[in-house]
Amino acid sequence: MTARVTAVSLSPSHNFSKRTQFEIRLIAGLGVEGDAHAGEKVKHRSRVRANPDQPNLRQVHLIHTELFEELAGKGFAIGPGEIGENIATAGIDLLALPQGTRLTIGERAVVEITGLRNPCLQLNTYRDGLTEAVLDRDAAGELVRKAGVMGIVLTSGIVRPQDAITVALPPGPHLPLRPV
Predict the structure, then answer these.
(1) Which residues pair with 64 in a beta bridge?
(2) What CA–CA distance (Å, rounded) separates 97 from 110?
(3) Separation between Cα atoms, residue 175 and residue 163, nearest integer Å
(4) Where in this chain does the record put each MOSC domain (predicted)?
């Protein structure tokens, strides 16, 4: 399967869920135009309280729709935008990408992956037990965070459902994704 966008979402306010759109505009150095989390400096409330001057490494939240299917098997009916992502994808293992991977989305938008979304307790507020449902353990017992990846916008562009996604890995050695 070719990697592609399945849905795009944004919210102008700090709501947990984001509304699906026909398209979103990514703005280099800022994020999703019109989204509450767009900006050069961090916009996530908990991170602003900790240090409002830190760079915004969470301009765009991407999540794999395969997670929605996995969650459905656990009794959670989750659709695009409901758990705060801007771009839902299919056919790409986002969690396996190394730091610095660049995704060309659509005709020209480029997003650089900065790290993992750290699932927060707001997931449980949305649906009881959802935080635990997006966490797992690997064979070595290490925590696996499945709630998507975060990135910064390097090149502006329009992103629509069905847009292709091209992956460019950074030069090695590759660093695994960590929460940002």
Answers:
(1) 89
(2) 15
(3) 27
(4) 19-168
**Is residue 71 in a domain?**
yes
Give which of 95, 105, 152 is closest to 5, Cα–Cα.
105
Q: How far apart are CA 100 and CA 97, in angstroms?
A: 9
Q: What range does the domain containing 52 cover?
A: 4-168
pLDDT digits (tens, 9 = 90+) for 61-109: 999 999 999 999 999 999 999 999 999 999 999 999 999 999 999 999 9
The CATH code of the domain that includes 86 is: 2.40.33.20
CA distance 88 to 61: 9
What is the distance between the alpha carbons of residues 42 and 33, in angstroms, rounded to a whole number?
A: 15
Q: CA angle, corner 167, sides to 19 and 141, nearest 5?
A: 80
How many whole angstroms separate alpha carbon 162 and alpha carbon 91? Answer: 12
> Which H helix or E strand runs over 90?
strand 87-90
C-beta atoms surrounding 62 within 10 Å: 23
Closest listed residue to residue 169, CA positions, set 104, 86, 91, 118:
104
